[in-house]
């Protein structure tokens, strides 16, 4: 063992090994010295545990690879061929080119909180408020960091130390870490659950109203469906009841839809403008679901409530940044111009005609050659909107020569490890790739990747 320790190279000599010497031209020597020292420390422990000492060039290569990996941003673009349009794990949605340009332009100084007329302090909420009010019909609007923040702020500002009535079927968990009972507790409001998981009647709400009731909360069941014998009280009924008792209704819409989803053969997703017209005091939704913009929480509603929210101390903790505001404003103008379906990627994907998808699937399959075939399938809208909502699509299916089990897994792993990773979905030991969730302008990239896949078949080691 002692002799293994003696084989350990010195820091200086390691730094003269080619890979580290090369890196030394790009970055300060101290960084490499620190990296080498850390590695040698670990190696000493390994040797004490009975391992042998690797040769110096090997050590230098490993340390250089570690440092190089640090220089490469962990967050990388991937191609979403999974067939889930709003894919939370892949960053939910793609932004329009105009949105990205606006965000780029917002990188410098701006009149974020500066009134150019008076030269005095302004409010960051004014920049998108008019647009949001115009599109939704609301009196007032504000934007925060995300929808979880929007709901938390609404509850904290309106209902702290008071009661909020929620249907038992809506006291739910949405995605990772957003649970209505937990958010309620954090806001300081007391959750009063009414009805049952599948049925909640207006009378259940009415019976729960007390002088301590601060709000009725409706939560859109955006990621699950209760089927069979169900009964939910409509938003309009809740609002009428609330009005009679001067209790505001907060509507957590989830996906923040502005368009009519039934035009695309989907279920009717509740829209901002419908909730506002029904008379909800506050309507909360995400900016990065069906709205198709950057991550944000949108709150629209009655001015007296929105004013209260803006003044609440939590508003600062969940405030939105300038880059997001610029992007969101641009995404919203696509709706105003009536061009959402041709500009906003989520809607482009939803609106894409089947024959175009079929043609693109043909090109993808051609790149894969004999491994691929095309079958009819379904794209999921996904990500906290339209539970179970699907659109017809054409899927590229990859099967091995003899339908080798494990081939799909090996190929999907290989695809994930490309320079631009491609994420598909595995179903019953075949790999499925859906062109509907890929923008046509990315076809050349994916076709390039698929084209090289046939060359590495069947082990996909490269
Ligand atoms: C998605 C969703 C949320 C959470 O929104 P984030 O923007 O992810 O914070 C809350 N409520 C509902 C109903 C949702 O669908």
Question: What do you see in this structure?
Answer:
The chain has 462 residues and is an alpha/beta fold. The chain folds into three domains: 2-71, no CATH class; 79-86 and 349-460, Aspartate Aminotransferase, domain 1; 97-343, Type I PLP-dependent aspartate aminotransferase-like (Major domain) (Aspartate Aminotransferase, domain 2). It is 42% helix and 15% strand. The chain has helices at 2-7, 11-15, 18-23, 29-48, 56-71, 97-105, 126-136, 147-159, 180-187, 202-208, 235-244, 272-278, 303-311, 314-317, 322-336, 340-343, 345-351, 354-368, 407-416, 443-456, and strands at 79-80, 140-144, 163-167, 173-174, 178-179, 190-194, 213-219, 249-254, 282-286, 297-301, 372-380, 390-398, 422-423, 425-427, 430-433. It is globular and about 85 Å long. It starts with a helix and ends in a 6-residue tail after the last helix. The mean pLDDT is 93. The structure holds pyridoxal-5'-phosphate. Pyridoxal-5'-phosphate is lined by residues 146-148, 174-175, 178, 219-220, 222, 252, 254-255, 286, 297, 384.
The number of distinct helices, counting runs of at least 4 residues, comes to 20
- Our measurement of the CA-to-CA distance between the termini, rounded to an integer number of angstroms, reads 36 Å
Tell me, rounded to a whole number, the average pLDDT.
93
What's the helical proportion of residues?
Answer: 40-55%
| Net shape | globular
CATH class of the largest domain: Alpha Beta
Question: If strands are numbered along the chain, what order do they take across the biggest sheet?
Answer: 2-10-9-8-7-3-6
Low-confidence regions: none
Compute the number of strand runs: 15
């Amino acid at each position: 063992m002692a002799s293994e320790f003696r084989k350990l190279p010195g820091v200086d000599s390691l730094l003269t090994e080619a890979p580290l010497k090369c890196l030394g031209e790009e970055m300060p020597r101290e960084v490499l010295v620190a990296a080498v020292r850390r590695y040698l420390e670990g190696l000493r422990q390994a040797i004490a545990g009975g391992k042998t000492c690797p040769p110096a060039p090997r050590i230098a290569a490993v340390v250089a690879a570690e440092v190089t990996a640090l220089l490469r941003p962990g967050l990388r673009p991937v191609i979403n061929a999974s067939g889930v349009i709003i894919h939370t794990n892949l960053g939910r949605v793609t932004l329009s080119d105009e949105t990205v340009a606006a965000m780029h332009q917002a990188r410098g100084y701006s009149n974020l909180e500066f009134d150019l007329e008076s030269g005095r302090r302004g409010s960051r909420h004014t920049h998108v408020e008019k647009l949001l009010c115009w599109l939704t019909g609301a009196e007032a609007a504000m934007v925060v960091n995300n929808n979880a923040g929007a709901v938390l702020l609404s509850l904290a500002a309106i209902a702290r130390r008071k009661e909020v009535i929620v249907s038992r079927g809506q006291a739910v968990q949405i995605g990772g870490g957003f649970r209505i009972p937990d958010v309620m507790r954090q806001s300081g409001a007391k959750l009063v659950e009414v009805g049952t998981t599948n049925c909640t009647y207006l009378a259940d709400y009415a019976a729960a109203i007390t002088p301590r009731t601060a709000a009725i909360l409706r939560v859109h069941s955006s990621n699950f469906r209760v089927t069979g014998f169900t009964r939910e009280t409509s938003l309009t009924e809740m609002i009428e009841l609330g009005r009679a008792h001067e209790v505001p209704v907060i509507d957590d819409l989830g996906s923040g839809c502005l368009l009519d989803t039934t035009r695309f053969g989907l279920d009717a997703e509740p829209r901002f403008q419908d909730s506002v017209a029904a008379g909800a005091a506050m309507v909360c939704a995400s900016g990065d679901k069906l709205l198709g913009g950057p991550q944000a929480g949108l709150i629209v509603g009655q001015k007296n409530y929105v004013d209260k929210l803006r003044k609440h101390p939590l508003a600062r903790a969940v405030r939105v940044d300038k880059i997001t505001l610029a992007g969101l404003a641009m995404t919203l103008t696509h709706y105003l111009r009536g061009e959402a379906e041709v500009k906003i990627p989520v809607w482009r994907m939803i609106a894409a005609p089947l024959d175009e998808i079929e043609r693109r699937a043909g090109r993808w399959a051609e790149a894969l050659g004999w491994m691929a075939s095309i079958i009819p399938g379904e794209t999921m809208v996904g990500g906290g909107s339209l539970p179970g909502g699907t659109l017809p699509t054409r899927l590229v299916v990859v099967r091995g020569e003899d339908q080798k089990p494990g081939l799909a897994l090996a190929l999907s792993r290989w695809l994930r490890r490309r320079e631009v990773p491609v994420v598909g979905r595995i179903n019953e030991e075949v790999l499925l790739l859906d062109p509907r969730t890929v923008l046509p302008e990315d076809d050349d990239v994916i076709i390039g990747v698929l084209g090289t896949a046939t060359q590495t078949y069947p082990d996909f080691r490269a």
